[in-house]
Amino acid sequence: MWVWAKRAPGELMDFRQQVAEGRVLTCMPVLMELLYSARNPDDFHRMRRDYGTLTICPIGPPQWDRALEIYGLLADQGPLHQRQVGHADLLISAAAEAAGVPVLHYDGDFDLITEATGIDTRWVRPRGTLGE
Length: 132
Description:
By secondary structure, the protein is mainly alpha-helical. The chain has a single domain, classed as Rossmann fold (3-Layer(aba) Sandwich), CATH 3.40.50. 54% of the residues lie in helices and 8% in strands. The protein contains 7 helices and 4 strands, in the order H-H-E-H-H-E-H-H-E-H-E. The strands form 2 sheets. Strands 1-2 form a two-stranded parallel ribbon. Helix 7 links the parallel strand 3 and strand 4. The protein is globular and about 45 Å long. The chain starts with a helix and ends in a 9-residue tail after the last strand.
């Protein structure tokens, strides 16, 4: 979501306002994914500084345990079902659940997690995009 927030500024004014008001939280796996998109050292350090103002949901032993529990719930659905979801998405979901906030996303992996757990997730997608 953060990536297309830069591409579709008119679509996300409410989201940006919520970020500015401190109502959007993140966690380290999301921050790492965001920084992956940096094109050069200056870009990386600017992005790290900008995103460093966000409130970080902790990921400690309880969140790791919950991520493994979610992984098991997916595995219980049938052969190889746990392979449908990325490890970072498990941690992101566990961190959001512990913080009592929904996961804002545009990734079908989170739908699978919600189906298995009931964790609150919400699709966000700018108008006019296909397949994201």
